[in-house]
Amino acid sequence: MALDEQEQQLLKELYGFLEDKPLDPASPYYEPIYKRTEGEDPVAKLRTRIELAGVESLQLFSGFRGTGKTTELYRLRNDLKQKGYLVLYSDALNYISPSEEVDIVTMLMSVAGAFGEELQKTHGPDIIGESFWERFVNYLTKTTIEMPEIAAKAEVGTPSIAKELVGDIKAGVDVKLALKTAPSFRQKLESFLANRLYELKAQVNAFVEEGVKRLRKKNGNQDLQIVFLFDQFEQVRGSRTNEQAVIQSVERLFRDHIQTLRLPFVHVIYTVPPWLQFVLPGAFSIETLPCVRLWKNDSGRSHYPEGCSSFCDAIVKRLGKGNFKRVFGVDPGGDGDPADRLIRMSGGHFRDLLRLFRETIVLILTWRPSLPAKPEVIERAIANIRSEFLPIAVDDAKWLDKIAKQRDTALPDSKPESIGRLSRFLDTHLVLYLTNGKDWYDLHPLIREEVSALAKIPANEKG
After folding, report:
1. pLDDT value at residue 148
2. Distance between CA 400 and CA 392 in Å, rounded?
3. End-of-domain residue from the set 360, 387, 414
4. Of 126, 227, 286, 353, which one is least surrounded by beta carbons within 10 A?
5. What is the mean pLDDT of the chain?
6. pLDDT tens-digit readout, 280-331
7. Are residues 424 and 323 in the same domain?
8. Cα angle 140, 143, 149; round to 5
């Protein structure tokens, strides 16, 4: 039976309810899946470390794309606000290019600039005397005037880097924008500040301390605790042409300067690329958000009902119980529930869960226009999403097959090329990170059969 107009409108609305975007925990769609599973709650651990740290701390948080990292940071923000903390949130990609190398100068300036701008957004433009960008320009101008070696070079017609920078700024260069989009300007900054990092750090510390002092005064609380969330930095990974160089730059940043990235009287959390734990094992602690476990780490990958139940509840919150039954013909979690297959094939990856259910709705509207969804619609939706993971190169399949058998990364070395390749596996969800008290890795269920078949192809038959 064809869909009537009311059913078509319902499906269009449900498709919108399944949109993949970060959620505030106050949203009716939010399901606290990391509170329900038997594993450790990463957000609770971040919050507890802040509470135990005193007046300042630094933590690293990570999560693979689509696992809900930003949504969980929103939960952390809400939890801390309820406990009396003042929480500032900033998107790192407003300040840093995800496709370029990053150094400590760029990072420090971006963090300080973001901190100041969030203060102004939340507490008005007068909360700080001047923006960090204005303060830095004043510092740069003053340095140019006061440094004898700069004046000497200028007299013989050789402009110093500092004078070039000041000239750029006087010509109208926006420091914040240039830091992200103008490599030549950024290189001048890096060159000028390479031997003056302590001066830049002093400028950043003074700016942050002044902001904290003004915040506490405005709030009438000299013991006010401040948290700064610097999100999305994990997306800095370069392009195909410079990926290895970018990976090395991020590694250097946290290997050599992690203590420099602390902010005085502030609890700061940086989101970092998940692969950082592979190149710097044991160097520091990274709290990483796993996929939701839908199967056990045994030879047969036996069903893990608690994880599947949490995903089912998340979908029901989006669709509503009555609408769920109209679309799938049974109550959620009931016997023969066809949606259970979609849940299991998501691999515990929340973005893929939404993709599978959205594709099902599209197919009902365009291919098999009737309710409840027919079994072939479910299978076609799975096949269509699977096709987005393909093709898989034979060499990749052989590595992926090792991961499936060992339930580990099977990383051959920590060279940037290998890290970049593994990072792509994880970013594209071919490989999933899971935990049950012990970290482990496995293949996405959508590609297991394809990988197994490809891995059996002899090396001389790859072409």
Report:
1. 45
2. 10
3. 387
4. 126
5. 90
6. 887 889 999 999 999 999 999 999 999 999 999 999 999 999 999 999 999 9
7. no
8. 130
Last residue of a domain, one of 365, 387, 409: 387
- Which of 416-452 are b and which e, b meaning 16 or more Cβ less than 10 Å from the residue's Cβ? bebbbbbbbbbbebbbbbbbeeeebbbbbbbbbebbe
- Same domain for 112 and 221: yes
Contact criterion met (CB below 8 Å) for 58 and 327: no
Q: Write out the two tokens for 41.
A: 């709650």
Residues 406-460: pLDDT tens digits? 999 999 988 888 988 998 899 899 999 998 888 899 999 999 999 999 999 986 5
pLDDT at 36: 65
Using DSSP's 3-state secondary structure scheme, residue 441 falls into strand
In angstroms, the CA 81 to CA 78 distance is 5
Q: Residues 199-240: pLDDT tens digits?
A: 999 999 999 999 999 999 999 999 999 999 999 999 998 888
Inside any domain, residue 406: yes
Shared domain check, 284 and 206: yes
Q: Is residue 114 part of a domain?
A: yes
Mean pLDDT calculated for residue range 183-206: 90
- For residue 291, the 8-state DSSP code is P
Query: Under a CB-based contact definition with an 8 Å cutoff, are residues 168 and 159 in contact?
Result: no
| Three-state secondary structure call for residue 383 | helix
What is the span of the domain harbouring residue 402? 394-461
Q: Token digits for 94?
A: 């407003």
Q: Could you give the number of structural domains in the chain?
A: 3
Q: What is the pLDDT of residue 395?
A: 95
The owner of tokens 């060992």 is 406
d(CA 366, CA 328) in angstroms, rounded, equals: 17
Q: Looking at residue 269, which CATH number applies to its domain?
A: 3.40.50
* Same domain flag for 15 and 113: no
Regarding whether 147 and 85 lie in a shared domain, the answer is yes
Say if residue 180 is in the same domain as residue 145: yes
Whether 69 and 61 have beta carbons less than 8 Å apart is answered as: yes
Is 131 in the same domain as 267?
yes
Q: Looking at this protein, which amino acid is placed at residue 441?
A: Y
Our CA angle for 73, 236, 46, nearest 5°, is: 25
Q: Which pLDDT tens digit goes with each residue over 31-79? A: 888 876 666 788 999 999 999 998 999 999 998 887 889 999 999 999 9
Higher per-residue pLDDT: 353 or 179: 353
Instruction: State both tokens at 415.
Output: 């060279």
**Measured torsion, CA atoms of residues 51, 57, 60, 61, in degrees rounded to the nearest 10:** 30
Note whether residue 317 is domain-resident. yes
Phi-psi region of 433 (alpha: psi -120 to 50; beta: other; left: phi over 0): beta
Answer whether residue 29 is part of any domain.
no
Give the number of other CB atoms < 10 A from CB of residue 205. 16
Query: Given pLDDT bands bounded at 50, 70 and 90, which one contains residue 3?
Result: very high
